Amino acid sequence: MTHDHRRRLAIILACILAFLALVLSGQGAVHAADFVDKSRLVEAAEILLPEGPPLPVVSYPVQRGDTLWALACQFRVDEETIRSANPGLRMWPGDEILIPLWPSRLWVDAGGGTLRELAEYTGLPLADIMQANGLASDAVFAAGQRVWLPLAIPENGIALSEVCVETGEGPIHLAQPLWPVVGRLSRLYGGPRVHKGLDIVAPIGTQIVAPRWGTVSAVRYDDILGLHLVLESTNGVEMLFAHLSEVLVGPGHEVSLGQVIGKVGDNGNSTGAHLHWEIRVYGELYDPAIFLGVGG
């Protein structure tokens, strides 16, 4: 071995010994964690929880004569919201369909996707998807899991539009109610004979849905109103539905928004099949048309 070879070998050996000394002392050690973006670790560790009520969804039994347009009007959503929520929608009588009460679209995940990825893919706010579905920010979807994508979220959690009512208790703001039934308005509130409500024409047997959440306080029959029920809701709101052919709930029953509560009839002091609908707030009568946003 030549002198040059010995010299090079000594230099290499000295470098190896110096490196081992650094490793053993813990100085200059290189770890995999040094290559990880610490900011991403902090972000991933921060799990957010949903705020506000989730998207309300009505399970509605389709009846003969229902159309997608009429249901969209009644439940105050666009037709595509209903169509998206029900893949392969047929609108056959007896079918149970889902009607989301916020403008939305339905996403069915293939499995393994995350909520954060979905928010990034759709461009929708992460917080909105979390709220609509009641999911935390670290959610991972199962195969076939249905996820609501809200296009807008009402501040009141129910309806995009509100009604301001002046009462003896002061002004109150209420979420605009659903139409109890869709049809022609045959007689308006008030007039020379002081009509106490709003008459909506519909065929006998047409389903009537609850325009608001509430509790059934009475189911009665008399010669004027025929078979009728009274629904008490929050903020002093009381609704009466009259001339019914059938009542599907009883006194004390809790009723959800959009639930079918009865069917249109033609009894009592009635001149044809229709729904007579009255609204009181803290005992004072109001024009239902104001609540529906159709005048008054």
What is the H/E order? HHEHHEEHHEEEEEEEEEEEEEEH
Q: What's the CATH superfamily of the largest domain, by name?
A: Glucose Permease (Domain IIA)
Name the structural class. Answer: alpha+beta
Low-confidence stretches: 18-42
Kindly, what is the distance between the CA atoms of the first and last residues, rounded to a whole number of angstroms?
Answer: 110 Å
- Please tally the β strands and state the result: 17
CATH topology of the largest domain: Glucose Permease (Domain IIA)
Shape by Cα distribution: globular
Q: Structurally, how many domains make up the residues?
A: 3
The helical percent reads 10-25%
Q: In DSSP terms, counting alpha (H) and pi (I) runs of 4 or more, how many helices?
A: 7
CATH-scheme architecture of the largest domain: Distorted Sandwich
Share of residues in strands: 25-35%
The CATH class designation of the largest domain is Mainly Beta
What is the makeup of the main sheet?
8 strands, antiparallel
Q: Taking Cα atoms only, what radius of gyration do you get, to the nearest Å?
A: 32 Å
Give keywords:
single chain, 296 residues, alpha+beta, Membrane-bound Lytic Murein Transglycosylase D, Chain A, Glucose Permease (Domain IIA), eight-stranded antiparallel sheet, three-stranded antiparallel sheet, 7 helices, 29% strand, globular
